[in-house]
Design goal:
The protein has 278 residues and is of the alpha/beta class. The chain contains nine helices and 13 strands. The chain has a domain of 130 residues: Enolase-like, domain 1 (2-Layer Sandwich). 30% of the residues lie in helices and 19% in strands. A hairpin with a 2-residue loop joins strand 6 and strand 7. The two termini are 29 Å apart.
Length: 278
């Protein structure tokens, strides 16, 4: 099964144990660029205030959501029904389905009194060293500089052809097979939306560590850890009111959220968390 199918199967099981809140609303960033990164994610909110993030900059997703979101019938919708769109739905359904799935995960974690630990750095604890070859999936410009400065070799895999070519101290390429030579890999969580996860992981079988980071990496991690992901770095919203006020502006919402890093060895597992519910 795909990750999306595994994820949904877990959510269905959670839905048999919890009375899940309905969808309250969808929060969107502005169409104007604003401050990049902060204006790249939507948030689907459940009636209890649980928020799930999803990337909206694939193609014209944000434009279409902005135009259509008031006619999508999300308010009061069954959260699991929306989450099912993550499996096999069209691009808008997948985006909204992933956001709903992440919102259900947040609700479940809160009910199970579980929260992932804080991240200790911005590069997933990879600790790049001189002589290591680091793969980066999705170009994180500030992080690329830190990796190069460590003395490690860096290869960045991108989908955008306009970014391809040699950079100062590293290379950007479209060729995902280059990941096969990497010791450690840092990946954007966008691969959970663009159907590239399984192909990417197949190229990383020889890597000692595979860390996925991004604001939308707020999903149940079990199926990712089972596929070889060793760390999942996401965003934990601490102040709901402040967050939903800031998101439409495109400005930084870092003051109302914290970065998390969950390692495969540290996560108790969804079954253990379900047992906490009694």
């Amino acid at each position: 099964m795909t990750f999306a199918m595994d994820y949904l199967q877990q959510l269905e099981r959670i839905g048999t144990r919890l009375s899940l809140p309905a969808v309250r609303t969808l929060h969107l960033p502005p169409l104007s660029d604003g401050v990049r990164k902060w204006g790249e994610f939507c948030a689907l909110e459940l009636e209890d205030g649980s928020l799930g993030l999803s990337y909206v900059m694939l193609g014209d997703t944000l434009e279409r959501l902005t135009e259509a979101h008031r006619t999508l019938g999300l308010e009061g919708a069954d959260a699991l029904a929306v989450a099912r769109g993550y499996v096999g739905g069209h691009d808008l359904q997948r985006t909204l389905g992933f956001a709903a799935a992440n919102a259900i995960t947040r609700h479940f974690f809160d009910r199970a009194t579980y929260a992932p630990p804080d991240s200790t750095d911005s590069i997933g604890g990879l600790q790049p060293q001189t002589g290591e070859h680091i793969g980066m999936i999705g170009y994180f410009a500030p992080l690329a500089g830190r990796i190069v400065d460590s003395g490690a070799r860096l290869t960045v895999i991108e989908l955008r052809a306009d970014l391809v070519g040699p950079q100062q101290g590293f290379e950007i390429t479209l060729d995902a097979t280059r990941l096969q030579a990497c010791d450690k890999v840092l990946s954007t969580s966008t691969i959970l939306l663009n159907d590239t996860l399984d192909d990417v992981l197949a190229h990383c079988a020889g890597s000692r560590r595979f860390v996925m980071i991004g604001p939308s990496a707020g999903c149940l991690p079990d199926a990712l850890f089972a596929r070889g992901v060793t760390g999942l770095g996401g965003t934990w919203i601490e102040d709901r009111d402040d967050f939903v006020a800031i998101l439409p502006t495109g400005e930084s919402w870092s003051r109302c959220a914290r970065k998390t890093m969950l390692g495969a060895a540290d996560y108790p597992g969804t079954e253990a968390l379900l047992a906490r519910l009694g």
